[in-house]
Structures are given as C-alpha cells and as structure tokens.
User: What shape does this take?
Amino acid sequence: MTVSVGNIRFQRPILVGNLVELRSRVVATGRTSMHIHISVHAGDPKVGELQQTTDCLMVFVAVDETGQPTPVPPFMLETEEEKRLARYAMDVKDALDAIVELRRSRRGRFDAPAARMRFGSTELQDTCPTFGVFFHEQAQRAIQASRR
Assistant: This one.
C-alpha cells in the first residue's frame, strides 16, 4: 500500500518522443515500510544518452491478505552510498512528520522532537543536494513556527 509519494523534483522536461527510463531502489526499511528512491531519465532515442529529469521518494507499507501491516525484511546497508541514502530517507520522513505535526497542532502547542534533527547541518544537503535545501528550509520553518 502506498503511504506517500513526495519530494518530487523536476530537473528538466521530458520531450515528446523521448525514451523514458525509471530506475528504482530500496533505500531504507522500517518495521513494515519500504522507502524507495525513484529516478526518471529521458533522452532522444536517436542519440542514446539519457539524462536524469526527475526523482522522488516513495514509501510503501507491506500488508497481508487482510490489509493489515506486516513486517518486511530489513534492508542490509553495505556501501557508504546506501547508508547516506538511508539517512536521507529517514531525514525526509522526519521532516515530513514534523510538518504534518505542525499542521495538526494549529489547535494546540507544537511539539515535534523530529524537527530538532540534523537540519542545522549540511549533512542532508550533502546526502542529496537535489532535496536537501528544500527540506532544510521546510524543517526550519516548522521549528520557527513552533516557537511562536
């Protein structure tokens, strides 16, 4: 079951007639969730060179035959790149959780420990420059709003 599709970044257009290729990989797992990074590449089939046009992060929850969440096998991180992408996926999840909490809290006081993460550093921007700045800004806004 799809939980979220987000962090979509459009970097360049896909033109009519372009060959389009989607590449995906698991970057992190939770107890019942899988975080999948998807990148879209496109280009003129006559040239044969594809350039990245878009990427996003999707989160899915595994469900059993009754529709109840069911555990997934852990994703074993082996390379430094896999570890960076897993941190990125969890940072994005925490930032989105903080933003959702902020929206819910308009009736009360904002309390989002997840918002007090590594967003003061450049780690997220270094991990995924495409999205790092955006989520850093969103998390900072959530933290500042909580102080009002």
Summary: The chain is about 30% helix and 30% strand. The longest helix spans residues 80-104.
